[in-house]
What does this fold into?
Amino acid sequence: MDIFLQQIINGLVQGSIYALVALGYTMVYGIMGLINFAHGEVVMIGTLVTITVTSLLIKAGVPLAVAGLAGLGASVLACMAIGWGLERVAYRPLRNAPRLTPLITAIGMSIVLQNIAMIVWGRNYMTFPPLLPKVDYEFAGANFTAVQVMIVVVSGLTMSGLVLLVYRTKLGMAMRATAQNPQVANLMGVNSNRVISAAFVIGSALAALAGVMVGTYYEIAHYQMGFMLGLKAFTAAVLGGIGNLAGAMAGGILLGIIEALGAGYIGDLTGGFLGSHYQDIFAFVVLIVVLMFKPSGLFGEKTGERA
Amino acid sequence: MSKWLGPRSATGILLIAVALIALPFVAALGGQAWVRIVNFAILYIFLALGLNIVVGFAGLLDLGYIAFYAVGAYAYALLASPHFGLHWPFWAILPIGALIACFFGVLLGSPTLKLRGDYLAIVTLGFGEIVRIFLNNLNAPINVTNGPQGITLIDPVAIGEFRFSGTSQILGISLSGPQKYYFLLVALAIFVIIINLRLQHSRIGRAWQAIREDEIAAKAVGINTRNIKLLAFAMGASFGGIAGGIFSAMQGFVSPESFSLIESIMILAMVVLGGMGHIPGVILGAVLLTILPEVLRYGVGPLQVAVFGKMLIDPESLRMLIFGLALVLVMRFKPAGLWPSPERKRELQGDA
It folds into this structure.
């Protein structure tokens, strides 16, 4: 039983990170119908910026908490700038282009960001400075750390904040209007360019936060880390029904838990035939199965064939 | 077909033929590595044309195309290497590889083809990853794929006693291994291109285009959209399988590393960058995106030294950086691709 609980906790932590990244994908998709393939790289840059800033400050003798917060702030700002720039350079000029064209520029930007990161930070793995004390807490036979608690709490708060933003503010209303129909929203006085920029900037801020969490959780970072993380988060967004905020959150957490449980139990389930290195398969198998029965994701609205 | 026989076309074909025959010898002046690069360009033409059937003709976004390439490559590797002690002839395995890949195409397609656009994309992406992860891990408890080490010592292509690896003398001309493969590849490429050209204007090809433009309308005029879409998947997959088999034989080595998602994405980039659905465009895209990174590989280092007097930036990352920028810039200024089909160009200009 404690293994089960342990894997649920691990899954919840990983899932919260997926959910934060998935929100970035889903916001952009909901508004523009575009898969922002470079989003995973934004997460990666978020992690690396935090490492650099925090380590420098710690070396300069600044207290841990201040250094950590400064690192977080720097990475959020950096990522927001990148998200904004990304949209301006790679997507805005192509808004009326054929559907696959922005996909290719997204891939191009992803390659560019990855290689910029490699030029700036090098090929080696970087270690994340430990910010929170390594204390194990125990609950019903399962262990968890302060970092894990922090990740779940902070992402919960952030997501609530985002929901408030989207459903209770004027900007949120403009976003929802643009998502429904950009032309009509424009006629109603919504500046859709600004709304789209805002979606990219907010999504990138969430990505930066997720990046910091990944860094504190795994204590290691690398210029190629964004790709798989982005892929999983995108899977989570699709699982929940892409374009749907609640779906992205639920999809992220669900994916995290399924992966953790899968990795924990696959050996027993298959009589030792498949080991835990098949962990990465779960995300995709679950995705395919869910989409076979619910073609627009768990929470996606049913749309026409040519939506 | 009569326009093919006009005197101007005849001269054109003759010129192209001469250029194709001369190419491996010209490339060899820069070293055998360049002949190999040219060979890979042709291999990528196969792949890009195969994916073009799915994405360009039928309008189904497939991000896991490399899986079929992998299936073909491993089919050849397992049936013609010391790994299982099997040494079947190339010509027997190639159709088998195509069939297995085709089977996988149907396997992936049948449950997923009702998904619309981007959902289909992510499912195919997931499928590609699943295939790669299995290839990576199927070395235990039964060693099927030899895991991350991959399979080595794969038999080269051979026709009777004539082997395509190593140097040999033909009609007094010395031909290296890659040069011999080049001629084999060109022959196959001409075959594949003709199939594609004929497909495009066939009943099936027109059905694909109808589905791409408007699926509901296509259904309404009596096209069995499900079967026709499956057919696109299966045919695209078979081309991938054939390319995989040739890759395996040419390299003599396969490992899961060659079949990562980024490869699928590169092939998609070739199709879109060249001009989706337009065969000459797709060929151009495949050639450019294979050659450009290699040219950059050899050019970026010396260029830096020439301009700045020393290596400022790691040439490997600079090369990929330029490559990524090139993708963005081409799409920015040529949204329909470098060489789009005339109809598509008209449509886009009509919109503006």
User: Anything to note?
Assistant: Chain B has two domains: 1-30, 34-260. Chain B has a mean pLDDT of 85.
